[in-house]
Write a structure and sequence with these properties.
The chain is mostly helical. 74% of the residues lie in helices and 0% in strands. The protein contains five helices and no strands. The chain is rod-shaped and about 90 Å long. The termini are far apart. The model has no long low-confidence stretch (mean pLDDT 91).
Length: 121
Amino acid sequence: MKIPKSVKPAIWGMIGGAAAVTVVGFAWGGWVTGGTAGEMMSASAKAAVVQAFTPLCFAQAKLQPEQLVLLKEESNWKREDFVIEAGWVTNVSEKYRSAVADSCASTAVEGLEASTMKPTG
């Protein structure tokens, strides 16, 4: 089969254009592979669960003010375990329990620190 000489540059142009569009799309266009999209979806789901359950955990924590004082005295790396052992995240799936407990502990300690701060003026 004989291809006319005028068609060859057009074919090479299409191949080069397709390659350029692919590179630009993945590098700057925000295109992602299916695997990356799945990872993004999982991270988004985890963030949504943490955001939804942290206020519920904090509400349970506020019902036990003596435990909140003990939580504040715990070291940062033990606070997550403290929240789990206190039972404030029993309603959270095991998959997300640790992340919710960590967020809840941070929220509770920040809330305690904010409530004990005295306004100046």
